[in-house]
Amino acid sequence: MTAVAATFLVAAIQVQAVRERTYPPLDLDVEAVYVTSGNAVRRLVGAYDGLAADIYWIRAIQYYGGAKRRLDARPALPEPPPMLAAVESSEYEQLFTFLDITTTLDPLFEIAYRFGAVFLAEAHPAGAGRADLAVRLLEKGLVEQPDKWEYMQDIGFVYYWYEHDYRQASAWFAKASEVPGAPVWLKGLAATTLAQGGDRQSSRAMWEAIRQSSEVDWMRATAERLLTQLNVLDRMDEIQARLDALARATGAPPSNWQTVIRAGVFPGVPLDPTGTPYELTPDGRVRLSESSGLFPLPVEPGRATLSR
Description:
It is built from 13 helices and 2 strands; from the N terminus they run αααααααααααααββ. The protein is an all-alpha fold. It has a two-stranded antiparallel ribbon.
């Protein structure tokens, strides 16, 4: 039975490869997972569970990418109504199932746990907006490898970055720091998070530590991007302070950059690190352009409109 299952599995892959070369892939709105139990899939594939795990991981990436592309293609709305939010949530509704099956077939599949957690935790439209499922996936990995400090660190990041729960984040960073072989900066990060969680200084310390210590190129690139975004937030605060000073001097907020430039506040329209001009709203507020490669900016506690 195992040999038969493996034969069908390999044949299915070959048939699908021929099909994709012959016919363009369809952009389906819904992708079905007909077998939702990882244990059931494991029984079907027998000794080929490693191969099956790779296939399901590829499917998870394709599913995530397809959902994100469909959401990115939708017109941007300032405040998505509840009905649209429900639709967005459904776009990723099977993502955890793919990741759960993948990690059941291969319980040591580190990339599936760590990248999968990011896919799940990221807010719409970049991800599923399910930090709870991200933590659940990483905790599943810890059942298999209780001394995997990287998973503990990642859970701390989820609580810090997506949930803004700094007490939980600090506790997980501290737990990770106690594992033999964990980087020494985790202990300091735990203390900083507990004392200053939520401010840009602690965020910058966290991502700088990741940038310097990560062995995964993708994680380093993510850290560098987020550090740049934090610098943008600082720069926007500086610009806004000068705009507010102009508003106090003239009695009205500037509604366009031409007014600001004529007043001598800036020699030209301020640019973000990608070279994209910052935008100025009619009520005199600076914001990052949606056409910038750094959009959207991370949302800070108590400042829910920073990215718009």
